[in-house]
Amino acid sequence: MLMRTDPFRELDRLAQQFFSGPGTWSRPTPMPMDAYRSGDEFVVEFDLPGVAPDAIDLDVERNVLTVKAERRPTRTGDQVEMQVSERPLGVFSRQLFLGDTLDLDHIQADYDSGVLTLRIPIAEKAKPRKITIGTADNAPKQINA
Hints:
There is one protein chain. By secondary structure, the protein is mainly beta. It has one domain (2-21, 32-75, 86-125): Immunoglobulin-like (Sandwich), CATH 2.60.40.790. It is 8% helix and 35% strand. The chain has one helix spanning 9-19, and strands at 2-4, 33-38, 41-47, 56-61, 64-71, 90-98, 108-112, 115-121. The radius of gyration is 23 Å and the shape is elongated.
């Protein structure tokens, strides 16, 4: 179902963390996810703690699903003096390359307790089905004209 992910994304994340300033990320970063099949649907869950629902953007183009989310600062103003800033802020992005066996026109998305859950139905053409076997006894008869 899930065709592939970028194997170098984790290396990019570590490099970004090392070279960028503390507390913020200079480029979009990946978000942890789980992906599994449950019955007749494919489920993908993304951890997005501290992200408001209106700061999440989902796009599907061909077989590429893009999830973007923005974690915004919660403490702003002149009176705030940060002592420790370890929670990354900014835009997070993740792309999934999905197989042809999924019905991308009927994706359902829910967001609860910092977890974005996508439910993607398995396409009818990809579901297992029975094939009837014909025999000589029940073969179609030819009619001579």
